[in-house]
Amino acid sequence: MVNSMTGFAARTQQGSDYTWSWELRGVNGKGLELRLRLPEWISGLEQALRTELSRALIRGNISLTLRLQRSRGEGMMQLDGAQLSQVLAALSAITREAERAGVELKAPTTAEILSMKGIADDPNTLSEGASVALRSKLMADFRPLLDSFIEMRATEGAALHAVMLAHLDKVAKLVAQARPVAEERKAEMADSLKQNLARVMENAKGLDESRVAQEVALLALKSDVTEELDRLEAHVTASRELLASEDAVGRKLDFLCQEFNREANTLCSKAQAVELTRIGLDLKAAIDQMREQVQNIE
Fold this sequence. Notes:
The structure is a single chain. The chain has helices spanning 45-56, 81-100, 110-114, 128-202, 209-222, 226-243, 250-270, 274-294, and strands at 7-14, 18-27, 32-37, 60-70, 78-79, 120-121. The chain is built from eight helices and six strands, in the order E-E-E-H-E-E-H-H-E-H-H-H-H-H. The chain has three domains: 7-74 and 127-154, Ribosomal Protein S5, domain 2; 78-121; 156-294, no CATH class. The radius of gyration is 37 Å and the shape is rod-shaped. A four-stranded mixed β-sheet has the order 1-2-4-3, covered by helices on one side. Strands 5-6 form a two-stranded antiparallel sheet.
C-alpha cells in the first residue's frame, strides 16, 4: 500500500470547560519533521502527541496546531469570592487603624487587589490533576483526527499508485520499442566498422591486423545498449514489486528513479541513431514525470 506524504485533517470539539480545534497538515519531506503549535501550560501534551505521530507516520513535514479556550470565554479569570472578602475586610481594617494613627494610605487599585495571591486564578494555570484530565481528553480526541489524516494520505497514495504504474508501463513500452531498433543499429554498426577496418588496413602498412580488430570489437561493445535496456527492464520489475509492498517505499523508489535516469542518459549517449535517440529522450521525459510523483510517496 502506497501512502502519500500530503494530507490534511481538522476537528473541533467541546468539553465541559474547554472548546478546542485541531489542524493537522502534511507535505513532502526527506524524513519525519514535526512542528507542533500547542498551549504550553498543558503538562506532557507535546511529548504525548509527538509519540503518537512518530508511531503512525514515517516521512513528511507535519504541522499540528491546537487552539484551546475556556467554554465560558477565553482567558476568563475565576475569582475566589471568599478569599476576596477576607482581603477586602483586611484592607478595611488596615485603613481604619491607619486613620486612628494619623497615617494616610493610598487606596489599592483593582489590578493590585487582583494580583494578590488567591484572589483570582489564572485560567492557564491548572492543578496537576486538572492538567492530567485535560490532557487525557485531548489525546482521546486526537486519535480520530490522526485516523482521518492517515486515511486521506492513503486515498492520495492509491491515486499515486495508479499513476506510478502507468508511468512504469510507459517506460516498459519504450524499452520494448528500443530493442529492435538497437538490434538493427547493431548490425549497421558492425558493417560500418568492418568497412572502416578494411579502409584502415588498405592504407596502413605494418599495423597488427589482430590488434586493430580487437580495438574495433571493443568499440562495438562500448556502443552496445543491450545492458542498459536490460537494467531498465530490471528497474521496472523492482519498482512494481516495491509498489506492491506494505512498507514505506518512497526512498527506495527515489533511488530507483536515479538509476532509471542514469541508464536513459547512457542510452542517449550511445545511441548514434535518430530513432534510438528519440526513444531515449522519451524515456528521460517519462522518468522525470515518474520521479515528480515519487517525491510525494511516504
